[in-house]
Structure formats: C-alpha cells, structure tokens
Amino acid sequence: MSHTRKFTPPANFDPQFVTCQATQMRIDIVKMLTHAGSGHPGGSLSAADIVATLYFGGVMNYDPQSELQGDGAPWRDRFILSKGHAAPVQYAALALAGYIDSAEFESLRNLGAMLQGHPDASKCPGVEVSTGSLGQGLSIAVGLAQGLILKGQMGRDGQTPPQIYVLLGDGELQEGQNWEAALYAAHYRLDNVVAIVDRNMLQIDGNTEDVMTLGDVAAKFEAFGWETASIDGHDIPAIHEALTRKRTSGKPYAIIADTVKGKGVSFMEDVAGWHGVAPCAEKCAAACAELEQLLKDSKDVMDISAAVMEGGGAHG
Ligand SMILES: [Mg+2]
Question: Of 52, 108, 157, 286, which sits most exposed with the smallest number of CB within 10 A?
C-alpha cells in the first residue's frame, strides 16, 4: 500500500526550508543505512545540500503526479546520480518530494526491493537512470541532453530544452569515460547539461589526490570547453545561485562543489572509513541526536522569519 505524500515542488527559493529538508534527508540517510546494516553514509551526507537545493530550492522542474500517473511530464528536468552508491540521498529526496513512500526506507538493499543499494530505474519511481557503475553518469547525461534537443523537446518554460543535472563523485572522475563525455558535450554545445562535482576529496581508498591526483577540477573542465563555477557545496544560497545563474556561453556547465564527506555528523566528517560502513544502533542514535537538534534549530529560525514577515518586519 503506497502512502506517498502530496508535495508541490516550490517555485521559489527559501534557504531555511531547503536547510530543513537537507537535515531531514540526513536523518533519513543515517536511519535507513543503520536498518540496512550496510551502505554508504559518507558520500550520501556530503551531497545532501546539493540534492536538497535541486529538489526543494525551486531549481528542478518536476511533478511526481504527472510523471507517475499522467502524461509522464516529458518537459521535466532530469537528475542522474552518477555516484550511485550514494543512493540513500536520492531516496530521501524522492520520499520528501512525494515519489516514494518513506516506509520503503526499511527495505533498503533487500533483494528485489524498490530501494536497491544503487538506484534502479526499473524499480524506483523518480529514478531516471540506473547507476552505480562509476564513471558513466556524465555520458548518459550528455546522450540524454542531446536526444531531447534532437527531439525538439522543450522544458516547462516551453522555450529551452529540459536541464539534465548529473551529480558526480570526485573519485569517479579518475575514469577516462568522463573526459570523452566532456569533449562531446562541449563539441555539440550541450548547454542543458549541468554537472555537479561532489568534491569531498575522499574516495573508498583514501584521499583522491593520493589515489590518483585530480588537481584543479574546474581548470580541467574549462580546458575541455566547459563553463564552470566553484562553490562551497554546503552553502545553500551559493549552491542555489550557481544552479540558477543566467548563462549565455552556450557551453555545458560544471559546478565544482567543495564538500565534506559525512557532513552533518561530527564523527563521520572527513573520515574515509565512513565511505562504505553503516552505523551501528548506538552510532545512529548519536548521529540522529546531532541532526535532530540541527533540524529543531533550523525550524525555530524558520518560525521566527515567518513571524517577522507576518508582522511586517516588526522591529521598528
Ligand atoms: Mg569523493
């Protein structure tokens, strides 16, 4: 029995609302991984602010009702989680957005379940592409972007093609296929491709620069003919500004987002060991205590802002 929540994607950007959604997503990530007993907390938590801004900051155009029951919403923007092992961050967003029931969290990583260890488009509503074999998401994004242009498909504004947002891990940029896709996107001027690099400087075997130096990722994309932005990947207004910036270069766009692996849980932050280990019940309780306090504080700030607005800025 499905109990997906009714949710209308916000048209406008409210940073406090996005902060609350990101924190709720972090709580859901920690809990679902603890229940599963395996999975990837570090890279799910590092990407939470980026994914929350895409889904809840008025950036992506989507509509679960028409996508799942109506005409399929061909105008929708697409999101591809190239770093598919961070699936819990996508599942947390899809539940808050009304694509899936949060009761599904308890079946994470069960054989045949909706929420596979890596996103499965044949099983999970709202997942556009099955991912997890690293290094392939950018190629898929580029093909999808060009296909929609060739088809003449317009986005929700009726004037520009749908945007294809692809979230890449930094470690997976060591795979050569990314750079062929980067060349292709620039050659065909696919400016509806937006690649976001979760630059947390860590991968399963340690620091990315020790495993295989990536160096200046923005400079590399620029050399391949891309427009770039470099931001703090936990600064929600900065993420929003980069994602909604008016661009006229005609080039594909890469946002290099500096992040902290495990962000939001003090004992997981910047620790490579939390790449692929689920928390035990005790660690889960400690993590959730921190995150729930953060959520309460964010909601208090949101209530105060709302009260001030209702009072017409009543400080005078
Ligand atoms: Mg990484």
Answer: 157
The answer to whether residue 4 sits within a structural domain is: no
Structural domain count of the chain: 1
Determine the average pLDDT of the residues in 239-261: 97
Residue 77 belongs to domain with CATH number? 3.40.50.970
Q: Is the dihedral of CA 174, 39, 50, 5 positive or negative?
A: positive
| Ligand 1 center to 239 CA (angstroms) | 18
pLDDT at 53: 98
Please give the distance, rounded to the nearest whole angstrom, from the Cα atom of residue 164 to the centre of ligand 1. 21
Distance 198 CA to ligand 1 centre (A): 6
Q: What is the Å distance from ligand 1's center to 199 Cα?
A: 6
Alpha-carbon gap, residue 236 to 177, rounded angstroms: 30
* Domain of 253, in residue numbers: 15-310
Ligand 1 center to residue 12 CA distance, Å?
30
Q: Per residue in 64-107, pLDDT tens? A: 999 988 889 999 999 999 999 999 999 999 999 999 999 999 99
In DSSP terms, 230 is beta-bridged to 256
